[in-house]
């Protein structure tokens, strides 16, 4: 018996350009103010991350892995994956209703399913399950890109944030 086939979900086809512009702006102004995000995802003037899609509560972005993303064995570092889950959970909330603040982390977990290596491209999918008056629940998936298309799932996580109701 071989390994089971990777779970591959097709990316969405429609795009909301107002939400996409908001996600890009939120990342370049708010997220890049954090040194760790700027180090891993690049500064606004030379981004390493490329946003490809956004709709209400969902965004997709791609990142080519460099040495800064790897562990000593040459695979995607677990702490980088966890940081991506933290970052993407907040951006998914920003995509939910164009909010300018996305709250603080309450809980975060991640499951590592496979790996990616130097030069590999990954696709990050951040989505909102629910945004309530106090809590927001998000899911983040990191897929390996193979032949320009979404391949196997590398990691998936959930991120709960305390949020203030949007006025």
UniProtKB/TrEMBL annotation:
Species annotation: Lasiosphaeria hispida
Molecular functions per Gene Ontology: fatty acyl-CoA hydrolase activity
Name listed for the protein in its UniProt record: Thioesterase family protein
Record keywords, A-Z: Hydrolase
Record lineage: Eukaryota, Fungi, Dikarya, Ascomycota, Pezizomycotina
Gene3D superfamilies documented for this protein: Hotdog Thioesterase
NCBIfam families noted in UniProt: unchar_dom_1 (TIGR00369)
Residues in Thioesterase domain copies: 74-149
One Pfam family named in its UniProt record: 4HBT
Similarity-based family: Belongs to the thioesterase PaaI family.
């Amino acid at each position: 018996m071989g390994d089971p086939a990777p779970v591959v979900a097709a990316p969405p086809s429609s795009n909301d350009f107002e939400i996409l512009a908001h996600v890009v702006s939120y990342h370049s102004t708010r997220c890049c103010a954090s040194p760790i995000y700027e180090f891993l995802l690049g500064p606004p003037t030379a981004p390493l991350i490329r946003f490809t899609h956004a709709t209400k509560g969902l965004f997709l972005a791609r990142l080519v892995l460099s040495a800064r993303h790897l562990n000593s064995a040459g695979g995607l570092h677990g702490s980088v994956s966890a940081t991506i889950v933290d970052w993407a959970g907040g951006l998914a909330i920003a995509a939910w209703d164009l909010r300018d603040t996305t709250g603080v982390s309450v809980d975060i977990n991640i499951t590592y399913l496979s790996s990616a290596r130097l030069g590999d491209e990954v696709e990050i999918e951040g989505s909102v399950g629910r945004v309530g008056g106090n809590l927001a629940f998000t899911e983040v998936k990191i897929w390996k890109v193979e032949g320009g298309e979404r391949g196997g799932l590398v990691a998936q996580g959930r991120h709960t944030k305390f949020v203030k109701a949007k006025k």
